[in-house]
Every structure is written in structure tokens, then in C-alpha cells.
């Protein structure tokens, strides 16, 4: 049987750390990081437990699948396990690869392991009360959309040698989608993937005008700003902030949920957090049943008081 | 077949899925997961897609809306909902061998049915309610060789192209794509209409055009992966500490500043 080789395709360095945390430690692993030049990789990324790190500066993280796909297809075709992130661009790339290379695809995977030469992949279902164990045939290359819970850097992984770091340019595809108008600037603040503290907002914060209050708290606390699907779909914050099944899966040391009742899809993306604090006027909300501490008060009042405390520190 | 396809004008296909609704998506039954005994209906996100297509037709940008579903015979309910809302036709791809079809098989079936419908635009939800991969629209686009626009919220068809707003994470972006294309829609900008009672009654016994896998020239790939186990996850009993406003602010302050000191 051919040696199982893993390929991780990450849209950024934080996701690289998170996704690598899913790969069984014994597998030879190649890590592809998009949107970054080899010279710009941080020492932390260079120290990740991969055998080879491939920086691909020419592909933005949100590249269309028909742009990134042709660039990556040969590399994917020669790997046995391909781990992608569950962002929309990751899902689109996975869908493109599944059809183009005729590969099976499993999703929402929070654990991978080798059992007697078979690869097993766990998917959390029924709001985290059960896990579905998939088994992948030996020798069948497969695509995995990851929902990582523990970054590689937070695990005690033995490393034999530093990763070989290379930069690659190649033949990317051409998008048939014309971008007429892009948003200004970059997403502000700490990225969600691999953040150690996440402050998330939901319906209970009342409206888009109140988001800035939470941005300020997050900035002062060095935390990432997260959001429920309701807050994102209502246009209060951009999709980059969405935590959950559709957005980013997070497992920080501390997760604070302001005014989030806790839909199953949201809980699926954050239930692995170390400590959960729910700020909610309804102590019966599903989020409060998951929380270690419930602050039974109005989210805005709590946030205003908290910002005042942080500002006077 | 497809004699109703207009010689000119644009047909929009809308992918609809019959999903478990009302909270419970799946049930545990004799050690496995089942959808039996869970109430089903059209995925609410698909109603948004149908509404968008109907509005495009009403604006004169399309002249026909076809709802397409892949699923068991009971999926006809989701299609009838789309018809009651105002879709012109319904297509059901149903085949016992497709039960548990993977992303590839699902995408190829939807692609084949879309092609047969004569549509130049397929509108899907960005993911389905029952915890899907969210990769099917991209896989359908790859099957058809059409470009993909993911997560659009608003958009209009003009002169053979779709101009739309999408957000892939960097904020709202205005894009344009020539048809044919596959697009996935998000909630938030289009509110689905509620069908009139007379339309619900009128469509209650409508039979969709039905295809089997063989009709569409499809065979199921050997999946290469299977579910081997369902394991209950131990839930640590948790009795949360309840704090009031003042104590809550102090606790959050202490936790957040403690975190900051570690960088």
C-alpha cells in the first residue's frame, strides 16, 4: 500500500495552524498556504509540524475555484488525504476538485485518525451529541473539509526536522466572474481561525449600530470578533466573522457570546471552546446551557460597562 | 420532453431540497441515523432562491422558472411548494440507488437535470439546512463547466449577464458574470412570498417531470467512504454560574485582561 500522504490547503497562516492540527501526526504532510510569499511567512508558521511548506503568493484566499483549482489539481491528485478549510472558498474549491478529479468528499470533520491503515474521519452531528465516524477506503484519495478544534501549535507534536519552505508560481485558471467593485481595505482585527479569545455578537445586540462597541472591546482585549449567522445575514458584520457550521469553526480558550441564543449550526462551530461565557437575558437559551458562566443581563449594558472598565485600566 | 422550452428567453432553474425541518434534522434509530419520523419540508433557504427567480421573471429578465429536486418520491412536497409560490415547472430526479448519493453524484444529477431543463442559470442555496457540505453548487458548476458565483444576496439579469453582490469574507463585492452560470444565494435580502391558498390547492396533486439516474445517463460512483459508526458523545453535566450585570462585567474584565497578558 502506498504511503498515505497528507496535503493541507490553507487560505492563511492561522488556518494553516488550525487545519494541520487535524492531520494524524504520523502522516508525511505538505502544507500549502495561499496569499503569502515564502519570505513573509512568520516563524510560527515555519515551525509548524509539516514536512514541506509551499507558499503561493499569487492566489488570494478567496480565489474562485476555477482559478485555484487548476493550480492545485496535480498536487491534490497525488495526495491521499487533502484537508481544506470550511470557508466558502474552501468549500467551492472542494466541490470543484471532487467533480474534476472524481474524489469523495467528507465535511465538518473535527477529527482524523489512522486505524489499521484505514483513515477515519469524525463528523459531529445532532448538535454535538453524536459523532458520525466515516471510514475511507485505503488507497482512495479523499477531500476533507475540516472543522479543526485544536491548532497544531497547541498540541505536543514531535518534529524531526524543520519544514522545507518553498514558494511556487504556476498556471492558475482564469475566472469568468468579473469583479466590478470591491470593498475598501482589509478585514479589521484578529482573524477568527486560531484566535485564543473570541467575542461574538448575535441578534441580541439589537442592530448594526451597536457592532462598533464590540469591535472596540475586541480590539482592547486582543480578541477576534465573531458573529452568528443572523448577524451576518442581516448585514451587521461581514461573513468573515461568522462562527458556525457555515463560517469558521473556532475553539479558543475563551468564547464570549453576546446576545446569541445558540442555533445548532452556531454551536457546532464553537462548542470545543475552553471556557464559554454567555451574556443573555434568557438563561434558558441553548448557548446558556453550554456556558460555564451566564451573565443574565442586556448585552449592550454589559458591553458598555466592560468597555468603560477596559478603557480605565 | 422539454417541449415547453421557449425558443428564446431565459429559463432559470432553482435547486430545491426536501429537508427535515422544525429543529430535529436526524434521529438515532437502532444505532444509526435516520431521517424517518422527522417532519420534512422545503429548505427555507430554497424558498429565498425561488423568490429571487420569480422576481427576475416578473421583472422580465426570465420567462420560465423550473424547480429541480434530487430526492426520494416524498421530495415532491418541496417541489409543490415551489410551484405554489409560482414556479412554472417541477423536475424530480429520483432513484433508489441515489439514496445517500455523495457530493459528486448529487452534483452530476442536478447538472444533468439543469441541462435538460434548458436553463441558463441555476440558483441554489449556499448550503442545505440539514447540515450539508456546502460544496454542491461548486460541484454542479464544475459538472456543467459553468462559472460559479457563491453567496450572492441581491442581483439582476441584464443582457445575458448577471450582476450581483456577493460576500466571500472580505465584504460585499459587486460582480458580473455572463450566463450560463451557477449561483448560490444567502438569506437576508429577499423575503419569500407566502403562497396563496388557492395556489397550494391547485398544485397539490401536480406531478413533476420525473427522471431516474438511467434516464439522465448517470451511474453512481463507488463512493470510497462510508459511515461505519455512530458514537454518543459524553456530555459533561454543566451547571452554569449565573451572574448579574455588575458581577458579569467584573468577571469578563478579569478574564479578558488575564488573556491579554499572555499575548
How helical, in percent, are the residues of chain B? 25-40%
Q: Beta fraction of the residues of chain B?
A: 25-35%
Radius of gyration of chain B: 22 Å
Q: In DSSP terms, counting alpha (H) and pi (I) runs of 4 or more, how many helices of chain A?
A: 9
Q: What is the CA–CA distance across the termini of chain B?
A: 65 Å
Q: Please, could you describe this protein's structure?
A:
- The complex is a heterodimer of chains A (313) and B (263).
- By secondary structure, chain A is of the alpha/beta class.
- Chain A contains 9 helices and 15 strands.
- In chain A, the strands form 2 sheets. Chain A has a 9-stranded mixed beta sheet with strand order 7-6-5-8-4-1-2-3-9, sandwiched between helices.
- In chain A, helix 7 links the parallel strand 13 and strand 14.
- With 263 residues, chain B is α/β, with parallel strands linked by helices.
- In chain B, 28% of the residues lie in helices and 29% in strands.
- Chain B has a 9-stranded mixed beta sheet with strand order 11-10-9-12-8-1-6-7-13, with helices on both faces.
- The chains are: A alpha/beta (313), B alpha/beta (263).
- Strand 7 of chain A pairs antiparallel with strand 14 of chain B.
